[in-house]
């Protein structure tokens, strides 16, 4: 019944705009064009990791990044032969071996990782490809930027590891320029220390989608693009990117309610007149009206979301869906699997298509994806 529709022309347009912007940033210090690493984690940001990755390959993207072993292996089983970097660290031997057997580039982010990967490389009699991760103030994976002696000592001890790249991850690049610049400076200082110790850091990449668009000076050799391909940004869109997906459902029931009739959980809405309604089998479990994670935002943003939630609770601010290219108001609270729409005086019938604005990342994985 429900389908996440991915608009191929709009996605293709976003890809081309991003590639053009990357070309405008020029070349790195070796004369190479800026490399785009497409991040396809979280089931391809909800677009279906295999089909989405294949679409990107068809449109000239040749390097990818994932967050889990399962994502990496799924791409290989689907016949994706392009370069794949796993952004999460791993030092569990059987998982490392599976990743290596599938030609996945590993993230090396600690002394423990280094020892495990080097040992396995010795057993397999081969050089294991890795990217070094530097923690410049995110507090997750990575060698802490200030512990340079430990980093150099660890890298110097490796005999069966080939460093293909070095990177860090920005925590607030979408709104905090000062801290982003601080992270960038910390990263560059670490790179200088590596080079001073005759360690080749390989290609350098620090920019996520936000930093890619806002700070061209930080592009270095490569950039990691995720949400920008979907046209979903938490800051001003400089490229005119399009939101490339929406959820489609159908009207499954129509009926008339009398004046003063409650609708939905908590009796949060009561009809003010005789009201004709349509019921649509789509709710928050389908991904509708699910907001981005609160931890992405500043305190002021969290207050704004709280204010909006309170407004929605008391129905001062309405939600809408689209039927036959016309907006229709949702009545009452969004349920887990259903919403109620006011169609009073309109020619809506059972089976009519309903279009809902969603973030694909939050659309349940059981819902069919369709590229049109």
Describe this structure in words.
- Strands 12-15-18-17-16-19-11-1-20 form a 9-stranded mixed β-sheet.
- A hairpin with a 5-residue loop joins strand 13 and strand 14 (269-270).
- The longest helix has 20 residues, at 177-196.
- The chain is α/β, with parallel strands linked by helices and 372 residues long.
- Residues 294-299 have low confidence and may be disordered.
- The protein contains 11 helices and 20 strands.
- The chain has 2 domains: 7-230, Alanine racemase (TIM Barrel, Alpha-Beta Barrel); 245-356, Lyase, Ornithine Decarboxylase, Chain A, domain 1.
- The relative contact order is 0.14.
Structural category is: alpha/beta
> Helical content, roughly?
25-40%
Question: Would you count the extended β strands for me?
Answer: 20
Q: Provide mean pLDDT, rounded.
A: 92
The CATH homologous superfamily of the largest domain corresponds to: Alanine racemase
CATH architecture of the largest domain: Alpha-Beta Barrel
Largest sheet: 9 strands, mixed
Number of helices: 11
Which outline best applies?
A: elongated
CATH topology of the largest domain: TIM Barrel
Low-pLDDT ranges: 294-299
Strand order of the largest sheet: 12-15-18-17-16-19-11-1-20
* Terminal CA distance: 17 Å
Strand-residue fraction?
25-35%
Number of domains: 2
Radius of gyration computed on alpha carbons: 24 Å
